[in-house]
Amino acid sequence: MTSTRRAPIAFLFPAFPVLHQTFVMWEVLALRQHGIPIVLFSMKRPGTGPQQPEAAALAREVRYLPSMLSARVWRTNFRVFIRSPRRYLGVFALLIREWWRDRRIAQMWRDKSAPANQGERLRRLPLRTRFNRFFNLSQFLFLLKSLWLVPAAVSLGDELRAEGIRRLHAHWASYPTTMALIVKWVFGIPFSFTAHAYDIYLVPRLLPVKIRTAEFVVTCAQVNARSLEAVAGPVARERVVVNYHGVDLTQFRPPDRSRDNDVPCIVSCGAYELYKGHHILLRACALLRQRVRCVIIGDGPLRAHFKQLANSFGIGDRVVFTGVLPQREVARLYGQADLFVLASVLIRRHGKRDVIPNVLAEAMAMQLPVVSTNISGIGELITDGVSGRLVPPDDPQALATVIEELLGDERQRRRLALGGYQKVSADFDRSANIPALAALFEAGDCSSRPVAALAAGRGW
Asked: Which CATH superfamily is domain 265-428 in?
């Protein structure tokens, strides 16, 4: 279904398309099928690695924002400044004021942070990983980066206004939503945003003003909605809507044949980073009394580190690190496995975390029994003993005990697999969740409202 009457909505991403964020690609495609016209913008180009086949056509239409130092950006900013200097300079003052107001929130988040865990005690982590911790968590760098975004946001807003695009939706509550906020302040273009995971918990400053100013906020878990309310107060209850990403049940469906492996096969999927808990899974596999094969799908900065760990645990010959794979190949590997395990952990000094990993719902859709940890929003997907098994995070022995129990109990595996499939079918079916999201965009359609004229020069 397509629409010719509605004004288009601009979607802004930090980078698009990105292989490990395929859920937003599927969202764009599904919303378009439901008649929501979308124009794609991205702050930067994605890496040159492999992509899902469906991403190629989308990548050709994405408008990548020009460099901050480009002549086009500065010509636009000079023109906007001359037209309304008070409004233009006021954006910098507003960012600093709101950042300063939120200093207590930043402290609250640190006080609630998880204790140091085994993942953080691993030695000889890559320098890039250690640098990213500092770069991402520094409150002052966050302010400087936000201020640095003003020229690019003004350039984006001017382009939207010139083309009659009167609505902006940002994916990720961090810098894309900061740009949407600036566009609103300067041009009056309404915006909404989707908050996912690390963008809520890494640096929560500016979240309150973003929630107050946005028309609505979408998030993928109840635990996220509660966290946003803790940050922004009662206004979050009026703005925040929970919409699970969901799974394409036509792509991830139970295999035709029964799984019959001579050596039990465990599969996991996720970026090769600490918060995914692959180091915990490797240690658990080393503790098992029976021989298993472990396939870990993904890629990332700690690939060499995890390989070294597997070798040091004496299981290097039984662990396969596949690298990134298209979804059809991921589904094939799920269909061959006996168990799916994702040992997610909370990283205190890094901030990245899982909320409800889509890979768990995909495995459950294929009636593959799953084991994960009782952190964040995973409990919204998995009820221990009903739709899967949950263990404490950062506990390789507890994980090994449950894995061993399930591998030795085919009846329990079948029961959990059926329970997982029923849970996903009821609450995480993308074909049911996307219409609700489309209705949200339709209800919040601002195409009939005039965009605030910059020339009006209204004060703050």
From this structure: Glycogen Phosphorylase B; (3.40.50.2000)
